[in-house]
Design brief:
The structure is a homodimer. Chain A is built from nine helices and six strands. Chain A is globular, with a radius of gyration of 22 Å.
Chain lengths: 199, 199
């Protein structure tokens, strides 16, 4: 079907959204056109404002509307002297949802991956070193995903922390709380058995 | 998690899209921010242009960038003297994909439904009557969905066509081509058996 140029453009650009193929984009386009048009215009405004206005916090590299994000700006959180290093801003979001972590963050926006052109500079290793050097941190929690690249990056950060006299830790891995044993994959089970704890 | 105001606004407005809840909206927002920002801006432009520029064709009420849509503007399609009445623009899209129908369309943008405030005027019955009166149509194909409201609307259009001396037809219903008998619902099977055709 040949759509009108405007509709065709809308359907094609909606596919920039993750998980949205042609069929879903068509459904979204018709929904936007069928409902109150001001909602579509509001959506466009929100996207434009976010694309232009959201930058990286100059301290932790997390997304922020300001030069320094609210978490970094909080004296209370600075005074915890604990830094949590994560791969992406969505990791910060999910950790903040638990409400348990009171320290501050550092966002790598990726992991060391020569194939993807991600080196120490791209993930801000220099900035992290600077932060650890001047930040009087007692502990750095390295909370990266356990891929090959993630593990390599964790190792590099641990070595850096060691060199600067900061304790490096990582969240425990094993069977998720509330999960059934028989629904676990082999890798997790093997790991959690060889890393068992005293009751 | 309290996001920054701009990010919060983006996540909330992305939920205007059909089938997008908070979780998906978060994922979309982070993806838009993480990729080349010009793509997000392109998407916003496409939405704005579509919201402001796409209107209803003044003849068939389908979405169109122009006063008269390309299908209605085609003399060749007019000369088929067949009108297909559908509930929504997405129905036109799906029928056009088959490439089999050569006539023109009329889009109701809904069906008669007093509960939803949809009366004859909202679905353009007056405009349809006018079109059938002046259009020298031989046939009107009433291709609505078979809900209670859809059937009621089909009946009204059939009566209107009869009054104006135009043959009203409807696409056949039954077991979809390529479907297995044992995967069919009772309603479809009952219908297709009582409407069996000679081999």
């Amino acid at each position: 079907m040949k759509y009108s140029p405007l509709l065709d453009e809308l359907i094609s650009k909606l596919q920039y959204l993750p998980g949205v193929g042609r069929k879903t984009a068509q459904r979204m386009a018709f929904a936007l056109l069928g409902q109150d048009r001001s909602r579509g215009l509001d959506l466009a405004c929100a996207i434009t404002a976010a694309m232009s206005g959201i930058r990286r916090c100059s301290r932790c590299r997390n997304y922020s509307d300001e030069e320094i994000c609210p978490i970094c700006a909080s004296v209370k959180r600075q005074e915890e002297h604990v830094l949590c290093v994560v791969e992406s801003p969505s990791d910060v979001a999910i950790i903040e949802q638990t409400g348990q972590f009171k320290g501050t963050y550092f966002v790598l926006h990726g992991r060391i991956s020569p194939l993807e052109g991600m080196g120490p500079e791209e993930i801000g290793m220099g900035q992290l070193e600077e932060l650890l050097r001047i930040g009087s941190f007692k502990e750095v929690i390295v909370a990266l995903n356990s891929s090959v690249e993630g593990n390599m990056t964790s190792f590099m950060i641990a070595r850096l922390a060691q060199r600067l006299g900061v304790t490096a830790t990582t969240p425990s891995r094993g069977i998720p709380v509330g999960s059934e044993l028989d629904s676990m994959d082999e890798g997790t089970l093997t790991y959690s058995f060889s890393n068992r704890k005293n009751l």
